Amino acid sequence: MVDPVSVSLGATLTLLLVVLHYAKGSGWEPRADISQEVLEQRAETVPETDFPEPMNRSIGGGAAGAIPAGEAEGELAEGGEDEADEGFDPDAIAEDEVEYYEVEFEKEGETIEVANNETILDASEDEGWDLPYACRQGQCVSCGGRIQEGDALDYVRHSNNEALFEDDMEDGYCLTCVAYPTDDFTIETGEQP
Ligand code: FES
Fold first, then answer.
1. Domain boundaries, the chain
2. Which fold has domain 55-189?
3. Which of 137, 158, 187, 191 for a ligand 1 pocket mutation test, highest count of atoms within 8 Å of Cβ?
4. pTM above the 0.90 mark?
């Protein structure tokens, strides 16, 4: 026969042991937050990348965000017309200094006069021609055109160029959205390097 007094005494002792165990604690301590340390260690193992890469120019505005402005400018300007373009502001051309040049649009089969404070793209749109473009800020090559006479930099200057390399311009390519004429020339629109 079970003695109820023994059972309750046993249960009480067991309960007491459990309470004592938890009151003492397990001795576990949380570790300090090392997430920042881990992130820094991992960052050190990732090699630096050499932006800009040639293909980046097709990304458009995004590329401008990814490339520190100074570096991108340096690479594009190296020995190129961009140095001459630096600081070129078409709005600074006084009224009596505005000059006009004959620009022949080969595909459109027409020659129009374009002012030196007007972009090739704007002038063509005034004619009602629907030429390609995207950013209108010299950051992609959507509006690209090719000057037939040779080095584009002998015929236009860019107010901004973040997409064409020196070689491209030597081959006659220009960005019509930011290109202002400095001479007469023939251009084939819708041409990218
Ligand atoms: S439209 Fe993007 S460079 Fe001209």
1. 55-189
2. Ubiquitin-like (UB roll) (3.10.20)
3. 137
4. no
